[in-house]
Design a protein that fits this description.
single chain; 121 residues; mainly alpha; Muramoyl-pentapeptide Carboxypeptidase, domain 1; PGBDSf; Putative peptidoglycan binding domain protein; PGBD-like_sf; Peptidoglycan-bd-like; signal
Length: 121
């Protein structure tokens, strides 16, 4: 009887571990401090743009951990932000255009926990 319980327990643990590997790991929902614009407002942004939508993208990009630098929340899409956006796009298999469009907004709101692309020097 005890042996059956151990086998059942082992099978349950194996199933749980298998399911955990199949579920992609993503970060938590948008933090409260990134509320410069509505999450449904996702304008196309390019290098040189300014405003609250840029500030929102900067804030969201700062949710990435590790090596990438934290951007200053100044609402200016500059060369430092362009480099980081291209890196984020590459981490998600998107074209590294540096343009923040619908697919890039999606990954900014739902960042991967890890990126295996080294941050460019």
């Amino acid at each position: 009887m005890r042996e059956r319980r151990l086998v059942a327990w082992g099978a349950a643990l194996w199933t749980a571990a298998s399911l955990a590997l199949a579920v992609p790991q993503v970060a938590a929902a948008v933090p409260r401090e990134c509320s410069y614009i509505s999450a449904t407002s996702r304008p196309i942004l390019t290098d040189g743009d300014t405003g609250v939508a840029v500030k929102q993208a900067q804030c969201l990009s700062n949710m990435w951990g590790g090596q990438p630098p934290k951007l200053t929340l100044d609402g200016v899409f500059d060369s430092v932000m362009l480099k980081k956006i291209k890196w984020i796009q590459g981490c998600h298999g998107l074209p590294e255009s540096g343009v923040i469009e619908a697919r890039t907004w999606q990954v900014l709101y739902h960042p991967a926990l890890d990126c295996y692309n080294p941050y460019p020097a």
